[in-house]
Please model this.
Amino acid sequence: MKTLKIEDLSKNFGSTEVLKKINLEIDEGNFLVLLGPSGCGKSTLLNIIAGLETINEGNVFIDDYNVSKVEPKDRNIAMVFQSYALYPSMNVRENMIFGLKQAKTSKEKIEQQLEKVSKFLQVDQLLERKPSQLSGGQRQRVAIGRALVREPRIFLFDEPLSNLDAKLRVEMRREIKKLHQQLKTTVVYVTHDQTEAMSLGTRIAIMNHGVIQQNDTPENIYNKPSNTFVADFIGSPSMNLIKGSLKESSGEISFTANSSNFEIPVKGYEFKDKSNLNNKEVFFGIRPEHIYFKKSNESDFEVTLRADLSEYIGHEQIMTFDYANQEILAKFPSTIKIELAKETKLYFDLTQISLFDAQTEERI
Amino acid sequence: MQDNLKSSSYQQLEQKSKYTNMFLRWFLYFVLILFASYFIFPLYVMVVTSLKTMEEIRQGTLLSWPSGLNFDSWAVAWGGRGYGAGDTFLKPYFWNSIKMVVPAVFFSTFIGAMTGYVLTKWRFKGDSWVFLFLLFGCFIPFQAILLPMARTLGALGISNSIVGLVLVHTVYGIPFTTLFFRNYYVSVPTELVKAARIDGAGFFKIFFKILLPISAPIIVVTVIWQFTQIWNDFLFGSTFSFGEAAPIQVALNNMVLSSTSVKEYNVDMASAIIAGVPTLIVYVLAGKYFIRGLTSGAVKG
Model:
C-alpha cells in the first residue's frame, strides 16, 4: 500500500500546461521534497494533493483510496503554509483547535490533543496570544502545531521556511527534521532551496516545466543526476559540463573536449548502454568539489589547467580554470595558494563523473 | 587659518538655512490657516445665524456675534410651531432618513463584503468581467437611471416608500462597497482561506469566522462612505418619494423653499445644521478606527 500515489496527473490553467503526466509514489513514513525553480509546478502539485486545486487529468490516491474528487478536509491531510496562514483574529489556542472543532471532535479529545501538541512544540505558554504577538519562529511552530493536532496521514509543507531569516531557517530546518524522526509521518515538502531539500528529504523529486526530472534519494540526485538540468540545478557552484565527444578504440573509451586532443579515459564509468559510444557528442560532468589539488586516489586523473579567477568565500575558495576554452570551476580549501594566469596541476576524481548525451541531455 | 575661514562660512550657511526654514514654516502656517478659515467660515455663519433672533439678523451683519444662546430657532426647525397645516419641521423626516440609511448602509456593506470575498477568494471563470461590469455602476450618472428605476419601483409596489429608497440606495451602493472590499481582500493572503478549507470550514464559515473579524478597517471606511452618500442624497429622495415618506434632505429643501411670508434665516440655518450633524457624528465616532490595520501579523514574519 502506498500512502500517496499520483497517477498520470495533468493540470493546465487555460492554455498553460502546469503539470504534464506526473507519476509519483510515496511509501509510509517517507519525507518527499518537491524541488524546482519557481514556476515549475511544484506548489500546484502540492495544492492538488491537498485538494485545493482541481485536476484536469489523472488521479490522486491516499492509502489506495481515490481522493481526486474528495474535499480537502476529508483527505486526512494537514498543510503548513509559507505565510503560516494563522487566523489573525484568533489566539493560538483557537488557531490550533479550529480544525478539530469543525470536525466536531469531543471537548476532552480536543483538550488532550492541544495539551500534547503544544507541550511537544513548546508553545504551551503562548496559547492566549494572538498571531501578531508572536515571533516568526513561534508562528512557524504554531502553524506546525495546527497541522499536528489533526493527526493527519500526510503532512504538506509549502515552502514553510522561506519567510524566516537565514539563522532561524537553519534552526527550524533542524526542528522539522527532528519532528519527522520522532513522529515518522509521511511528508510532502515543497521548496526551491536545495540545501533544505538535501538535508530534509528521504526522497527528492526535482521538477522543471511541469515534469518530474528525477525522483530519487538525495545521494543519487547528487551523485547520479539523470540529466543536465538536475546536474546543473543541484550543487553550488553547479556541476561543470564540458562539451566534447567520446572515442572508442580497442575497448578503451575516452572523452575529448571540443577543440582539444587531450583524452580523459572513462573506462570506469558505468554506462547504461555500452553500444554506439564512439564519436558520441556528450557533456562531461564533474562537480567543482571533485577536482582536487592533491592526488588522493589511485584513479585520480592528472590535468594541467590555467587559473583565471579566484573567489574567496571564507572557509573555501572557488577557482575558475580554462579547459580547452571552456570555463570550469573548482572548489578548494582557502588555505591552498594558487597563482592566477599560471598552469596548475589538478586531479579529476573519475569515480565521481557523469556523462550526458549532448542531444537529449540525458545521462548515458 | 583655513579652518577658521571654513568654520565661519559654515556658520553663515547654518544661519542662512535657519532663516529660510523659519520663513517657510511661517508661510506654511499662513497658508494652512487661510485655507482652514475658508472652510470654517460658512459653518461659523450658519451656527451664529441659527442662534440669532430675526430682529438681530436684520440689524446686525453676517459676522456679528449673537446676543445670547437662543435655541428657539432650533426648536422650531426640529419640532415646528405647532399650528397644523403648512407647518413643516424636520423631526419626522429625520426619522425617515434614519429608517432609510441604517438598513441601506447595512445591506450594501454586507453585500459588498460578500461580493468582494467571492471575487477575490473564490475566483471563477469570468470573475474579472463581473467586477468590471460592477465598476460601471460607479460611473453611471444617476440621472440616467431615474426613469427605469421609477418603473421598477412601481412594478414592485414600493414607490414613494422608505423600502423603495432602501432598495435604490442598496443597489447603487453595491458597486462602491464591492470595490472597497475587493481591494481590501486582495491583500489578505489566500493561504488563510486554503488553511481554513483544510480545517473543514465552508464558504460562510470562512467569511464570518476568518475574514469578517479582520475587516474592521474597511467596514468603517465603507460605512462612512455609504452613510454620507445616502444621508446626503437629494436626487433619489426627491424623485422617488414625496410627502410623508421623504428623507430629511428633501424635507429641508421643502422647508427652506416653502416659507410663506418672511425668510427665517435662523430656522433655515438650524435645519441645515441638524440635517448635517449625523454624518459628522459618524466621522467623529468611526474616524479613529480608520487607521487600525488589524491584519498585521497574519501576513509577514
About this structure: The longest strand of chain A covers residues 301-312. Chain A has a mean pLDDT of 92.
